[in-house]
Every structure is written in C-alpha cells, then in structure tokens.
Amino acid sequence: METLQGDQVTLVPVVAAHVADLRRIGETVAVRERWGEFGPEWPFDDPDLTCYSILLDGAVRGLVQYGEEADPDYRHAAIDIFVDPAVHGRGVGRDAIRTLARHLLHDLGHHRLVIDPAADNVAAIRCYEAVGFRRVGIMRDYERDADGSGWHDGLLLDLLAADLR
Fold first, then answer.
1. How many domains does the chain have?
2. Strand ranges (DSSP E) for the chain?
C-alpha cells in the first residue's frame, strides 16, 4: 500500500498508532449511528479490506477503505468512509473519496466503483455525487441498523472512470 495525496488530505495505510484516534472518531454519535460498535480487532479484522487513515494537517480525521471483486467478469471495487464530525462540511470526505477513486481507477485498473450509504444519509450522498457517483437504486432493508433493532434501506451508487470529477 502506498500513501495517496489529495488536495487537502493524505491517505496513509492504517497502522496501530492510528487506532486510538480512529476509535475516538468512531465513538462520536454521527459515526456510531452509521457504523455501530467496532470489534476488538478492528480495523485489522477483515483481510479483504484495504484501509487508509485520512490525515488532515497530519492529524487522523477518518478512515476510507475498499474491497475488490476479483472475478474478471465483475471486477470492481467498493468504497466506505467515515470522517470526524469535527471536520464535516470542509470537503475532507469528498477529497478522500476522490483521491481513493483516482487510485482505484487509474493505478489499479478498475473501471467501476460502488458505494452504498444508508438511503437517508443525505450529506454522504451529496458528497459522493459531487465526486461523480450516480444513483443506481434503492436496496430495500439492505443493512441492519447500528443498534441491531431493525433494517434500513441503502442507496447503491456507482462511478465509472469517465464519471470521476
């Protein structure tokens, strides 16, 4: 994994020194209500994901990750992200998504990326659409609520290489 430089952010591979900050951000209401509780081995618990810490002015301000579908007939990557609410509204998420998308499309040769926020996560959807993601459709009862009490819809968005802004 390499370091990726955006306009504002630097994406660096997650290391143990980042975990305390990432967990602190994960405990904020805004992140916990979307991501739920992190397990004891998180963020090193899923070998199928590649995780980057989002650095802004040298400080850990979030996490962006991706997983890849390797089957050549369906090859694509799926992205997920959370950003410290203390820096919401400053373009940090948009820059992190755009930076990772460029890497996945241009360096790793993916032709398509997907992201699947909760359908009611208006701010996240606005961020992804600003980068060039397009709405594909609603996935009904797609994801368990963070508190485990029920299910909510997800919105599938995708981005083709030509769509990246």
1. 1
2. 4-5, 9-13, 49-56, 59-69, 76-83, 112-115, 134-144, 151-160
Cα separation, 159 vs 165, in Å, equals 10
Write out the two tokens for 13.
């591979």
One-character DSSP codes across 98-130: HHHHHIIIIIS--SEEEE--BTT-HHHHHHHHH
- Domain containing 23 — which CATH number? 3.40.630.30
R_g over Cα of the chain? 15
Closest CA to 51 of 11, 103, 5, 8: 11
Using CA atoms, how far apart are residues 108 and 161, in angstroms rounded to an integer? 12
Per-residue pLDDT tens over the stretch 83-123: 999 999 999 999 999 999 999 999 999 999 999 999 999 99
pTM: 0.94
